Amino acid sequence: MTGTSAIALVQGASRGIGHQFCKTLLMRNSAATVVATCRDPNSSTELSRLRDSNPDRLHVCKLDVTKENDISDVSKYVTEKFGKLDLLVNCAGMLHPSGKGETSLKSVDGQDLLHTIHTNTVGPLLMAKMFTPLLLNGNGQFGIRSTDPKSVHCGVLANISAKVGSITDNGLGGWYSYRMSKAALNMATKNLSIEFARGRKKIICISLHPGTVDTDLSRPYHKNVPKLFTTEYSVDCMLNVIDSLTLGDSGKFFTYDKTVLSY
Ligand SMILES: NC(=O)c1ccc[n+]([C@@H]2O[C@H](COP(=O)([O-])OP(=O)(O)OC[C@H]3O[C@@H](n4cnc5c(N)ncnc54)[C@H](OP(=O)(O)O)[C@@H]3O)[C@@H](O)[C@H]2O)c1
Fold this sequence. Notes:
By secondary structure, this protein is an alpha/beta fold.
């Protein structure tokens, strides 16, 4: 990240990885401003505490990613306040409404599947749609700027995906809703990267796997995980990936250590 006026928006910032993105972004650049969105700003004590210690640099907005009106309201707020966006992190996500992934076809429920896809896939795509004009006004504060003046990126869009969304990597099965929602999110990343590469102003769009991280989402599975990351470690690594991005990286699916995953 360079310069003095970076504007980043973290969607899904009440807790877990999204909340850590806000903390680390504020820490890494003393001039960065962060817009943190969450469903219920009043109930996130961690976010309120962070705002109290960064009153001018952290803006908290209400946004349920399944509600188009919320997305539109926050895009208007960012337009009026800043007129641009340098980084959008689509972070909100769910494993399944029950908190545990399906172990077999028998436990698949249509409404639960749709709810998961609405949150993990449809929401991030609508975020991309409504924040594209702001990302096009970004000035390359995240990622490495190209030396070719005809091929410079303005903003970065990072979709927080999951390795289990890789079709190639799927050797175990199960987790129908989560796997399908993240595979479809990865397709959205790829499609967006193609569209974003066409114009004179470009947006870098990637999918990012955070590793297995110590959060509420992964809690039911912690005892089976050999390498459980802290949110601090995972987010620091993912921001290193974001800071190292070039236009040639757009459309790729990276892990926290910039290994490229197959879709
Ligand atoms: N933890 C892992 O090991 C792991 C591994 C791979 C990928 N990921 C991905 O990383 C991202 C963050 O997960 P996490 O581990 O930090 O999970 P988490 O601690 O359970 O946090 C989930 C976040 O998503 C928000 N959210 C859920 N539904 C929402 C909605 N409709 N609108 C707005 N926000 C909503 C939650 O907000 P509320 O507080 O309002 O519920 C919360 O802030 C997810 O996309 C997840 O799939 C995590």
